[in-house]
Amino acid sequence: MGPLEMNMSMVSAKKADISIQLEHEERRPGKKRKREVDVWMQRAGSLEDRVHKLGRKVQETPFLLRFMLADQVRGLATELDKLHEKGRFDHGLTLDVKPARGYELQPGELVGQASQTKRDEIWDGLMKEEVLHVGVWGQAEAGKTFLAKHIHDRIVRDCPRFDGACLVNVSQEGTVGTIQTDIAKYLELDLTGVSAVYWGARLRKALQGRRLLLILDDVWKSYSLEELGIALERNGCKLIVTSRSKEVCKQMNCHELVHIPTPPEEIPQEFEEEEV
Questions:
Q1: If one looks up domain 113-259 in CATH, what number appears?
Q2: Mean pLDDT (whole number) for 170-188
Q3: Domain chopping of the chain, boundaries
Q4: Region 162-190 average pLDDT
Q5: How far is Cα of residue 113 from the mean position of the Cα atoms in its chain?
């Protein structure tokens, strides 16, 4: 019983350490304990009870009859050895799990009446049943991305019209392939091993029946939604495009356009002189 109880104390200490580590990791968003960890913890708890009961039984059994319990002691010792080996968890205790509606981007507080008005203007356009594309355009640093992130988070938190939101930073270097890859990552769709020519078809199928808001941020040129694999419909997915160019928004069929003016203090002097 001595070695058995010693091994049990080691497993109990490991169980306590794992509990503390799980408590710490599960505080982080998108982290969920592995099922095998839960099973191990339950098994460890069960063995603790059995070892303690056996210990009491040994003490209560007359000395000359204790040899009859030897098989139980050896059996528990074997189970403990196996449990200790399985409790290594070399690949971690938790999994990365995306929240059901997506992650909040938390861009910061929306300050000023003008910003709130523009956010509401984008939102109102998005909520129109007949509007599938909303274009948000304005100069660099006007706040297009900031407002788009606020719309994104409002949908992620709770919006019955949508199941979630996905924001893709396109930028000047963006390609059809990079956009498709980012959307696929959000959808947890594995495109590896599939020829790039079929990526659009795979995305289109994955988006079918979904009600997502897709945001293509900082778009420098027009992209074909058909080539990207983005299908929009009234009770399905919708799209926000942010760009410095009003023409790019129009070319991507954004019939609802929202202009974000640069704050007066940020307008370069040459633009002020031209307007005068």
A1: 3.40.50.300
A2: 94
A3: 1-96, 113-259
A4: 94
A5: 31
Helix (H) or strand (E) holding 243: strand 238-243
**AA letter at 232:** L
Q: What angle do CA 177, 249, 149 make, to 5 degrees?
A: 75
Residue 234 and residue 130 in contact, taking contact as beta carbons nearer than 8 Å = yes
- What is the phi/psi pair of residue 15, to 5°? -60, -40
The percent of the chain in helix, strand and coil, each rounded to the nearest 5, is: 55, 15, 35
Distance from C-alpha of 64 to C-alpha of 216, rounded to nearest angstrom: 80
At 26 the pLDDT is: 78
pLDDT at 36 > cutoff 90 = yes
User: Up-side HSE of residue 220: CA atoms within 13 Å toward CB?
Assistant: 10
The angle subtended at Cα 91 by Cα 87 and Cα 96, nearest 5°, is 115
DSSP label at residue 207: H
Cα separation of 244 and 138, whole Å?
5
Q: How many CB atoms lie within 10 A of CB 253?
A: 14
Contact 170, 179 (CB under 8 A): yes
Q: Residue 83's closest CA among 4, 137, 151, 141?
A: 4
